[in-house]
Amino acid sequence: MLGALAASLESEQSFADLKAGFDNGLVKFITWGILSALGYHLVAGVKHLLMDMGIGETKEGGRTGAIITLVLGTIVIVLAGVWVW
């Protein structure tokens, strides 16, 4: 991702080449996979930060937090797919 950012900032031609490369379905799929992993990691990290503050430390709270994390993670993954495609 950082390599793509660096390439896009080099020149107008390198940006156009990179943009043309993103029309490939495999590149879109890989980008979606990376964004999905980062999005779920962010949602799960927020859950753990809340647990560190004492929210949801019980068995029932942990179960509820896990369900909320899965639902929000799924929403983030779907939104990433919509954005990429």
From TrEMBL:
Q: Which family does this protein fall into? A: Belongs to the cytochrome b560 family.
Keyword Cell membrane among record annotations? no
| One GO term describing the cellular component | membrane
For this protein, the parts annotated as crossing the membrane are: 26-43, 64-84
Q: Quaternary structure? A: Part of an enzyme complex containing four subunits: a flavoprotein, an iron-sulfur protein, plus two membrane-anchoring proteins, SdhC and SdhD. The complex can form homotrimers.
Q: What does this protein do?
A: Membrane-anchoring subunit of succinate dehydrogenase (SDH).
Which coenzymes or cofactors are required?
heme
Pfam short name (any one): Sdh_cyt
Q: Which organism is it from?
A: Thalassolituus oleivorans MIL-1
A single GO BP annotation from the record?
A: tricarboxylic acid cycle
Q: Which GO terms describe its molecular function?
A: electron transfer activity; metal ion binding
Binding of heme: at which residues? Answer: H41
Q: Which keywords appear in this protein's UniProt record, sorted alphabetically? A: Heme, Iron, Membrane, Metal-binding, Transmembrane, Transmembrane helix
Q: Which residues form a coiled coil?
A: none
- Indicate where this protein resides in the cell: Membrane
Main location as per UniProt: membrane
The free-text cofactor remark is: The heme is bound between the two transmembrane subunits.
What protein am I looking at? Answer: Succinate dehydrogenase cytochrome b556 subunit
